[in-house]
Amino acid sequence: MIYLLYALLIIATFCFMEGVAWFTHKYLMHGPLWYLHQDHHRPEPGWFEKNDAFFVIFAAPSIALFFFGWRDQLNWMFFMGLGIFLYGMAYFLVHDIIIHQRFKWLRHSDNTYIKAIRRAHKMHHKHLSKHDGESFGMLYVARKYRDAVRKEKKSAHAN
């Protein structure tokens, strides 16, 4: 029974992190922490960006939860840290590999989700300042982007 609770905690933490990512992206990265995030909207030469610091910032609670959740005996904090870690891995896969293609994998996918997430992120990046942004989430794609991709696919198959 305890393992089921731990699995539910991992899933709940993972899902909660999408809200945390949305909130911090909209109100912190496009607010007081814009100086770290702006080079993501206005790329500068080089492979790394100041924006990459957010990987470290988001990893810190996960590392702390792993440490305190493993220290004496395995407890709920470890599994919460695991949920954050898994969200971070999913974020890296979606944001850095699928969307920005830092690694040239999945470049020509016809998957509706992948196309919709790329479209949503493209709409986010059309704004070069910290104001007037849209689509701040990462793994959840607004319905309008999914519907637009489906409509394009349907019209392409009809022709």
Describe the 3D structure.
By secondary structure, this protein is mostly helical. The protein has one domain. It has helices at residues 2-29, 34-41, 53-70, 76-99, 112-125, 143-158.
In short:
With 159 residues, the protein is mainly alpha-helical. The protein has helices spanning 2-29, 34-41, 53-70, 76-99, 112-125, 143-158. The mean pLDDT is 88.
Secondary structural class: mainly alpha
Give the strand content: under 5%
Q: Tell me the domain tally.
A: 1
Annotation field: number of helices: 6
Low-confidence stretches: none
Q: How is the biggest beta sheet arranged? A: none
Determine Rg (CA atoms, Å). Answer: 18 Å
Q: Provide the residue-averaged pLDDT.
A: 88
Shape: globular
Helix content: 55-70%
C-alpha end-to-end distance: 54 Å
The number of E-state strands comes to: 0
| Secondary-structure element pattern, one letter each | HHHHHH
Oligomer: single chain
List the helices and strands and how they pair.
Elements: H1 2-29, H2 34-41, H3 53-70, H4 76-99, H5 112-125, H6 143-158
Helix pairs in contact: 1-4, 3-4, 5-6
Features:
159 residues; mainly alpha; 6 helices
